[in-house]
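Weekly structure sync, notes
Attendees: PL (lead), two postdocs, one rotation student
Agenda item 3: pending single-chain targets
PL asked that the sequence for the first pending target be pasted directly into the notes so everyone works from the same version. It is reproduced below exactly as submitted, 659 residues in total.
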Amino acid sequence: MATTALPSTIAGPAGIRIRASAAGAIGGIVAFAVSAIELAIADRKYGIFTGGFGQLHAADTLGERVAFIVAYILSQTALAALVWSALAALRSGRGAARVALDFAFLFGGTMLFALVARYQLHSYFSDAVDFALLKSLGGGSFKDALLFSKNELALGLAALAGLAGAWWVVARLARRWLPATPMARPRWRGALGLGALWLAALALVPRVSEDAGHALDRMVGWSLAETLAAAATDFDRDGYGVIGAPGDAQPFDPARHPLALDIPGDGIDQDGYGGDLELVPVPRPRPATLVSAGSPNLILVVFESTRGEAIGKRIDGRLVAPNLTALSRGGGAVVPSYSHAGFTTQSLKSIFAGDLAPARGAPSLFTELKRSGYAVSVFSGQPEDFGDISATVGMRASADRFVDAEALRDKRAFSFAAQGSLLVDENVLLEAFDSALGRPQAWAQPQFVYLNFQSPHFPYDHPGVERRFADPPIDRAAISAANRAAVERTYWNAVAHADAALGALIARLKALGQWDRTVLLVTGDHGEALFEDGFLGHGHVIDRRQYATFLAANRPLELTGPIVISDYRAIALDLLRGRTPAAQPITPFMHVGELDRPSTIGMAGTPFGIVTLRLDRGDVCFEAPARCLPYAQLTGERRRAADAVVARWGSERWARHAR
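Predicted structure, written out during the meeting:
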């Protein structure tokens, strides 16, 4: 049968001549350019090759980088080939040049929009923040994330509409200048072969190199394919696929899957750890408690991201936090005190409501003291509506004065600051305090005052911070593991700045004659890692650096054993009522991620110190002596310690489902 060869050159009415091979080259250039932009932004934003704030996994060794680059090139090539083949099949009658045009807008434009939208949303939470932290930094709610970033999303949608409009205009012009000369039908074999290799890489790369796998998760095309592959291999429709992390070891049993709620006493181990669940005691939040008239004032000060070692810490022979140290020596202190989740939003809810994961409307210090006749004031260097903090604990609804970083946006420390990274200097908060409570008559009724000092948060420096231990402080762009010593000095310099504000607050209380009539509690919301193990930030690894902080008071604190921040509400109420505080005799429980879907769970106060279980890969780590082992290999005391963590996690979940 005779055939007619397709022309290799397409001629337009204005003399434009475009070869089909050149059109393919244009598609390749577009794919290469988009990929180069994504890599540059991802490394700048997340430090995928160098590490950074909130970045637990970095492809920073030769093997990890090779695995990442090979897999990334494969994924981008396969994605581009599949899109090109689909467009060629749909648009074959319009010519190679028109296909190239459509590809440039659809693949190039859409990918660029996805990059901008995704990274803009993440920058809303914190610059250089790890993608895996997004939900936690948003208080565990993507709804909150979307609400807080509505302006950025509106701009993104406008940009997408503009892109679609530009595509339409260019396509109309192309009808005049680029003829609809037929082109060869696409050969799907190559594109589908690349797609199959990509699917294999999705399953294999995370097993070969965990760090490379996590770095790839930050790539738009890879993460989309992984999500689709996990859904496609979720054969029993329980929400977990064979591909993805964590993978489903029981792909045809919907009752058994990673993170399943283990049913106690049914003889089945639904989650694959610890055998059939046997419930153990869990702390119970104190019922709503009122304080009698004539009780002391309560002032609660939270230092952001401040480690427990701040009390008594010395640099160059000088105390970093002399006011905090003097407070603890004159009153009392508990070190360590553990955060449950390692993030601000969840930690503040636990502090005020006295519960691991309080529900909205649960009793809190704000609602109880308001009902007890206290005036309530909030002076915070962060936005307290962020992550649903205020609504959960009744903060704004109870406050007579509510001054936070949202109200003080014009005084923020960083001009670029989006909602989740607003920071207002402590001295500005003290000015607001003076304006509201700087006169003796303002203290005619008992006061509950909450202050939040943000300086110790990344990037650990801003205009107005005095150079006490870092001269100069490290520049934000230079923060890296290679400059760890300078990062540490800058961090402790920020803690010293917050401590100076604490000293100024104490001086004000004494000048107002309120010091002896006030219970002052000072704490951190969680700790901070400073590249000791290659990690900068908090909330990703359950250890003393990231999860341990302190509680200091101007009253005696005769508490034994480690406590958690959810003990604070009961401690504060006891001190206000003239009673000796007593922590619940149950070991601190901690988790990474949401309680029902954590990646890691752990407990402190065990015979091995802190014991953690990585639920996404089955590794158990012991603090003392330091060692990590696969759960399946554990025996004896180590196995019992790991199973105790699993039992506590299951019991905490059941306690919340029962409420």
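Discussion points:
- The mean pLDDT is 83.
- The first strand starts at residue 9 and ends at 11.
Action: rotation student to compare against the earlier draft before next sync.
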